[in-house]
Design a protein that fits this description.
- By secondary structure, the protein is an all-alpha fold.
- It folds into two domains: 193 residues, Citrate Synthase, domain 1 (Orthogonal Bundle); 98 residues, Cytochrome p450-Terp, domain 2 (Orthogonal Bundle).
- 59% of the residues lie in helices and 3% in strands.
- The protein has a three-stranded antiparallel sheet.
- A hairpin with a 4-residue loop joins strand 1 and strand 2.
- Helix 5 packs antiparallel against helix 10.
- The two termini are 36 Å apart.
- Bound molecules: acetyl coenzyme *A and oxaloacetate ion.
- The site of oxaloacetate ion has 8 residues, from loops.
Length: 369
């Protein structure tokens, strides 16, 4: 039996959902190129594509978006729990708690049929913005911002976080970031969700496990860590110095490197870099763009490493006025569509995940009598 640390290059599932075609620099989502989807479609349309396997007609999009918007209300107990959690709770932990509580409210909890799983997925996708925004506000002893009926899914999501009606450009960029995060083949969190659902566990359990995985700094938690590093530096010169110092100490720089892209730029990072350029030009404020470009150059020169999505999503979120500890929950919220598609696929064609080990421990020890 062959052992590959980190399961590098091990094929863990057969799927029709997505594939990283690194050679051709394409992230294939149900047959489409993710970057093209991000430039031409809305998050709601790509979520529909993931769940239904095809892009929606205009009528289907409107119905689906209305369905999501109609699910925004949460059971009262969630608001109550969020307001009672220790104020130091990270919103990712509140989010995990929220998903666990919702499980108890689902009459179809143990139904793994495709239809029941789709119903759960739509409920969760609709509720996700409310969970994020309300948990953040309640943890910070602020009023919860009620949804605005007249806004699109993404505009309302941003509004419930910031309390400000976003401009058209802000909505477009936020929506694009959600598409960038929506699905990415077999990252650690998706693998976790598939492993959990392979025991016939329910979709909520699989997603709660995925939240835990995605919170880590080597995965989704990197977007927050990037922004804290930029904030700590404040200027381009300090950022360059800080990166060099960390590299000299053999520390990792968050937002760089990727198991699959290795020494190539993540196509989604370029998408978000363009968004940062747009926001910077529109505001006449190039500070974050200059800092990030300086970091990108140093990492390429010193380590031959390129930015991943988290590196450029972080300053984009900062410029959109989003609190830093919501960056990773937003990543998860966007990823919900992809994760649900994977749980559905796993449940529809299941075999229990149960790998083996390469044992390096002791043998033949005798118990002392
Ligand atoms: C949207 C996402 O979730 S993308 C991932 C977000 N995560 C990050 O940005 C965290 C920073 N990046 C990393 O830690 C890594 O690049 C990972 C975890 C993403 C991928 O790691 P792996 O494929 O396991 O590569 P591995 O950890 O073996 O690293 C290979 C080499 O590159 C170095 N390296 C990889 N990434 C970085 C980095 N960001 N900074 C400095 N060095 C790095 C490692 O130190 C290692 O060097 P060595 O061979 O001299 O020991
Ligand atoms: O693919 C990965 O390993 C991590 C990643 O970029 C993602 O989940 O978007």
């Amino acid at each position: 039996m062959e052992f590959r640390p980190g399961l590098e290059n091990v094929v863990a599932a057969e799927t029709t959902i997505s594939f990283l075609d690194v050679e051709n620099e394409e992230i294939v989502i149900r047959g489409y190129d993710l970057i093209e989807l991000a430039e031409t479609k809305s998050y709601v349309e790509v979520a529909f594509l993931l769940l239904e396997g095809k892009l929606p007609s205009e009528q289907e999009r409107a119905r689906f978006e209305n369905e999501l918007l109609a699910k925004r209300e949460l059971p009262d107990v969630l608001y109550d729990v969020f307001s009672k959690l220790p104020k130091t709770t990270h919103p990712m932990d509140a989010l995990r708690t929220g998903i666990s509580i919702l499980a108890g409210f689902d009459p179809l909890i143990d139904d793994r049929s495709e239809q029941a799983n789709k119903t759960k997925s739509i409920n969760l996708l609709g509720q996700m913005p409310s969970i994020l925004a309300s948990s953040y506000h309640l943890l910070n002893q602020q009023e919860v911002i009620p949804p605005d009926e007249n806004l699109s899914y993404s505009a309302n999501f941003l509004y419930m976080i910031t309390g400000k009606k976003p401009t058209e450009l802000e909505t477009k960029i936020f929506d694009r970031s959600l598409i960038a995060y929506i699905e990415h083949e077999m990252p650690n969190s998706t693998f976790a969700a598939r492993v959990i659902s392979s025991t016939h566990a329910d979709l909520y359990g699989a997603l709660a496990g995925a939240v835990s995985s995605l919170k880590g700094h080597l995965h989704g938690g990197a977007n927050e860590a990037v922004m804290y590093l930029i904030e700590e530096a404040g200027t381009k010169e300090n950022f360059e110095r800080l990166i060099k110092q960390k590299l000299a100490n053999k520390e990792r720089i968050m937002g760089f490197g990727h198991r699959v892209y290795m020494k190539k730029m993540d196509p989604r990072a370029l998408l978000m870099k363009k968004a940062l350029q747009q926001l910077s030009e529109q505001r006449g404020d190039f500070r974050l763009l200059e800092i990030c470009e300086a970091g990108e150059t140093i990492m390429r020169e010193e380590k031959g490493l390129y930015p991943n999505l988290d590196y450029y999503a972080a300053p984009v979120y900062y410029m959109l006025g989003i609190p830093i500890d919501l960056y990773t929950p937003i990543f998860f919220s966007a990823r919900t569509a992809g994760l649900c598609a994977h749980v559905i696929e796993q449940h529809n064609n299941n075999r229990l995940f149960r790998p083996r080990v390469k044992y390096t421990g002791k043998r033949s020890l005798k118990v002392q009598q």
